[in-house]
Amino acid sequence: MAALWLAGSAKNDNTGILATVALVCLSFSIVNADSKAVTTTLTTKWPSTPLLLEASEFLAEENKAKFWYFVDATQEIHQGDYEETDTSYYQYILQKAGELLTPVQTNLLKFALSLRAYSATVQTFQQIAAEEPPPEDCSAFINVHGEKSCNPDNLEALLQSALERPKPYLFKGDHIESSFRTELPVVILYGEIGTKEFSRFHKLLHSKSDVGSVNYVLRHYVANPSEDKVLLSGYGVELAIKSTEYKAKDDTQVTGSELNATVINENDPVDEVQGFLFGKLKQLYPEIKEQLKELRKHLVESTNEMAPLKVWQLQDLSFQTAARILAAPSVDALMVMRDLSQNFPTKARSITRTVVNPEMRKEVEEHQQYFKETFGLHPGDSALFINGLSIDLDVQDIFSVLDLLRNEARLMEGLHELGIQGDELHDLLKLNVQPADSDYGVDIRNPAIYWINNLEMDSKYNTWPSSVQELLRPTFLGVIRQIRKNFHNFVLLVDPTDESTPELLKTAEMFYTNDIPLRIGLVFVVDDSDEADGLKDPGVALFRAFNFVADELDNMNAFQTIISMYGKVKEGEKLAIEHIIGTLEKDFSNVEVTSILGANSVYDRNRKECNNYYKQSGLGSLPIALYNGMPYQREQLDPDELETVTMHKILDNTAYFQKVVYLGELNNDQDVVDFIMNQPTIVPRINSRILSSDRDHLDLASDAHDGVDDYSHFAFLKSEEKSAAVANSIFYLSKRDDKYIRPLTFWIVGDFDDPSGRQLLYESLKHLKSSNNLRIGLINNPNSELTQKNTIVARAIWTALKTQSVNNAKNFITKLAKEETAKALAEGADIMEFAVGGMDNDAFRKAFDNLSLDFILSHSSFCKDVVKLKGGQRAIISNGRIVGPLEENEIFNQNDFHLLENIAIEAAEKIKTKIRMLAVEEDFASDLIMKVDSLLSSKSKGEARIDLQFFEGQFSVIKLRPKEEQVYFEVVAITDPVTRDAQRLSSFLLVLSQLVNMNMHVFMNCQPKLSEMPLKSIYRYVLEPEITFTAAGSFASGPVAKFLDMPQSPLFTLIINTPESWMVESVHTSYDLDNIYLKEIDGGVAAEYELEYLLLEGHCYDVSTGQPPRGLQFTLGTNANHEIVDTIVMANLGYFQLKANPGAWVLSLRKGRSEDIYKIYSHDGTDSPAGTDEVTVVLNSFKSKIIKVKVQKKPDKMNEELLSDGNAENEGFWESIKRGFTGGPKPEELKLDKEDVINIFSVASGHLYERFLRIMMLSVLKHTETPVKFWFLKNYLSPTFKEFIPHMAKKYGFQYELVQYKWPRWLHQQTEKQRIIWGYKILFLDVLFPLAVDKILFVDADQIVRTDLKELRDLDLEGAPYGYTPFCESRKEMDGYRFWKSGYWANHLQGRKYHISALYVVDLKKFRKIAAGDRLRGQYQGLSQDPNSLSNLDQDLPNNMIHQVPIKSLPQHWLWCETWCDEASKKKAKTIDLCNNPMTKEPKLEAAVRIVPEWQDYDQEIKQLQKMVQEGKMNGLTHARTEDVTSTQDHVPHVEL
Known about the structure:
By secondary structure, the chain is of the alpha+beta class. The protein contains 53 helices and 50 strands. The longest helix has 24 residues, at 639-662.
């Protein structure tokens, strides 16, 4: 370890360090091998978007005002015009954006620009503009209701008849300058911010929008896109060390890439090699830089020895690596951790020499006990928390983490602005202020309810036990307990004449007759006017008839009587007077019916009360059902649903009652209904406006010191400053005139010189009398031009608040809120006539007479600009939450204020507890609670934050302390440094430490007693905190994964790990990325990837059955072409996925059976408003997009199935199957029966297997006359293969298609490339291919076919969904390797054969019909969690499922493999497979040449074709770029499955 401190100890001894360097250099033998490198880049398909536009989108997410301010500020600074360098252009953007952002947010903007996080958003607008399409030679243009122009002078002409044309579709992400007004025309400007052409349009439209004559919408449009692509970051690249047990490397020589010299020669950020901190040494001793470089090179080359370690050396590697990291100074520890974990295979040998401090080991073990108990973490597991929020880097991509950092920064800076810092700030952050998802109910103890039965009193229930203790008696699951207590109360509020009423009453009767322990109540809502006549109105008639029977007999008999009245109503009819009279005359023949029903009936009691109860409850439209006062949802009132839901409610609430009885909160002496109704969730009135989860909050965090008394100053404040000014200058009313922290603040907004405003004020004051928690402030929102006369009440209120004590002001204002007072004032009464006792009349009169109207003008401006109210509109602002605007005649009474307080108080009390600890003055504390509540409620998402107040740790924790007096993030990471998580986490934490101020703790969670190498790959996480520039001031090449100083002996495979929603493909790389052997390469390997698609994922359900509609097809396209890509819905979770690029897309059901049988019922997460048939989906981000779609069968198709045995599903679809990319006959020439195509599926990765694949294809084609269509899994094919295949297709006349499917995020992920490919062979067969493909043959790439595969396709599978060949058993010397003959497999197979997965045939129709794919995925999900199961995934899974998904055993001659089959059977072989031989380990190429005589001929034939293509002898085709050759894929609708 002495070497590690060399940088520190030799600080003042230059000769010492020189001597050391010389000695170390001499001690190493000179190695001449050059340093080899591998680089990886990932770009988008679309052109690079201007940073200025990306910055504007960042600001748009902050708020709309900042976006438009930025647009105004950055006009005419186009990159080409602004100075000369990229640096100055970038600095200009940061300067302009920085005026609107805090320092932390500015840093996050730099990070967002480095990530190019908003490039997708800008590109979305570009795609929308392309759909228009733009007029020619136009760098900016407007669209006015479908009419376009490039000239601003044409705007007036276009506006003249605009409203006669249809309005354009506006997207959620559109930038609309002012509040959208439906009566105005919409002008959409397409242009590039910062250009002269844009500026001309913008100034014109801005002025028109300002005066309220147009809706101005801005969409980005870059007329001359860049030639560069966007270089992306936020992904990982690993070089995994491959096993060379079986040689699988192609012997075709490919040269390496000439790597950019700057990439290799840049300073390597890894500065720790064998204990030497070279970064520090170079800083301290610049004069010996060259010698240090030489020393470093020797050390690297000696370290890179990859000789395997002994088992005893492996055991303590995790602890030793941690010790090595912790020995470094804390500022460098993260750098050392990244170096050691990411380069672990090359560092492991040197790490084995590290000594572990026993105290560190002991502390790690103590921490692990805590981690296990608190988080369920085991040794080796990782976790990351930012401000207590759990971040899973496996699930959350870096773009989601950026959003989280921005949101947290807003919260923390808001609290900081309010003067809260440090630990207090983080304590407040941890509060969950989101209201609990509790349902609210209304009180059912009301005489308006007619109770039909009473479980506690009726003789019907006499035999039932009556003790609440009965609830605790054990019983079978799901049994409803019959106890003589009114635990369950069911109330129906109905209009007797409504068509839904009979069914609801029948359901209630069914509950009663079946002895369900449910007390049933009815409320009849009928005409409550005095003139109501039961001989004309059936509703009133039924109500009076019910009262009459109830009086004569009882409520139960009255209920039975009205049931029989409804029984007379025929289907399609409505309840009529005759039905009621007929029933009464039959049952009560001696009574005069007209006297019961007529105008002067004595049976009219409760009619008004029922109506009042209904109106007062605020429950919405009829019918309404209540369970214990809680309303049912509208869809639950369907009669079938109602029964089920009610039973569930009874069972669910039984558990609650058991709990309260067990805890002694409810006993036999208490009235059960009273107990239920006294719960806090029961309120006098339900108000959906208050309960709505869609909530707007004011920004009250601004630290402004303005007031409202000078309107000329107030008018020019920003919106958040206006809010702060109003908050600073408001006076409050409260229950008592005392110093007390009141956690709730209501601002009552209205025109108090108008009756509606006074009514709201009066109701709030009535509520105030009963609340100790509340204070009320008043904000005037006048309805008309202000004069002294029409503002008397407002001025009097304001004066009273300013000059009087709270009690006197309250009494006086209560008087002013009464209508008689207003009337008297309007008639000229003096204000002092209404003064109350105790008032300081002189002070009041003096202030009242001298009061200007400025405060009302300021309040009015605040209401219009900030709260978005029109003049005179009313609203309530509860701790910053805006409830309103209220409709003109909307009731908002004392009970609504009670509910509003109920909802808000819990969060406010939590905040009050924390604020009280700050020991601030009471009024200020109440203000602070209001502002903090508004901030936390608006910005916090309500996720649970984990309180990480655990021990500091002395020996096993990396600590980074925050800078003082600034907001800081609390970052806690738990990791084992020798895991994949640490490889990524170390890079992320390093970048984070450069972005934000943080208090960081990284706890080591080491694994003891390792038995194998913990990390077998070298890893890079591509992430940069900011854009970098060259010395000349231009943009540097961009983010790249650099593997420098690589060991040359191992064989590597390159794997790229991208966010879940990215589909990437390898491009422009001639080298085999599956088999990188650096020893054979000159230079290095430059891997280039392209982001081919962003994934749109979704879940689909049939609303009628609640099940996924298996086989349903969706398409995604544009308005012009609906079918660009398509997909099939899985039964697992109703999952589907579609591929697209940024833009606005239309989601539809595929034409054919999907569209014939189903219609889209509803959708969630899309850009279209709910309820629209056409579903628009906008992909405008690199983040995952997941939508939910519900479908419903059309009424006339209820009995039809999508996956029927008929052939109808293929109508209109087969044409697309018959078309290949190239080389096949034209569609009109192909008059074939669909059975005349052999569909063959295969997968390959790496040049050797692609070489085998081409030979396999050739062997198939040589043995059949039937047209062949090959289906290749595109995910792993090399650029070389994709470039060559069109030429091969043209030469040999076959069709082909590249299919893709992204491994779904919910299905257990494999990390090893080979196992992922195996998974693709078996797990997605039902969704990879279009429904029209009936049968598919899978043929392994390393197979040679010697027969016509038409025979296999036509083979009868005898009802099985697929057929496999069993493993041969004729080569006896291999018996010891036949694992299926003993143990688990022998027991599981029960004498059946174990089948090989190299060749199989799938009847896709049967496969889908029996949901085989869903069953296989289900079984895989269960088994794959165990790393020791499914060792041969593609083979073990179908064999394991043989009892659930039967396999047809194919005749043995269909697959011959030398490893398992004897020589005698070879001559009958229809296919030969080049299986690995576990005994000889013979390389594949050697085996191919030896075993298959024709293999070399095929190989030479393919090589000849490749040579011709390269030399351009094939009709000049070399000059056709690959994209041109395969371009027909864009026109084949199902290609992108």
